[in-house]
Write a structure and sequence with these properties.
about 80 residues; alpha+beta
Length: about 80
């Protein structure tokens, strides 16, 4: 089974693969993005290179952008 494919508003509203959050992304979501710990498992990050979109698995409207420090170098 592959990654879930969802609508990404940062990628021109196209369908993209979304992956689970890693440790640093989870920490950011809990502290600065104010995602409730109980809901944290519902959030995924766009797997497209250079994209910093994090959104709920169930609703693309419920999401936020990670800061540029989470963007890979060269993007």
């Amino acid at each position: 089974m592959g990654l879930p494919n969802r609508r990404c508003p940062n990628c021109g509203d196209s369908d993209q693969d979304f992956r689970p959050l890693d440790g640093a992304e989870r920490a950011y979501a809990l502290t600065l993005a104010q995602v409730c710990r109980a809901d944290l498992g519902k959030y995924r990050r766009c797997a497209r290179e250079g994209c910093v979109r994090v959104q709920s698995y169930f609703s693309w409207k419920s999401g936020f952008d990670l800061p540029d420090s989470f963007r890979p170098t060269g993007c």
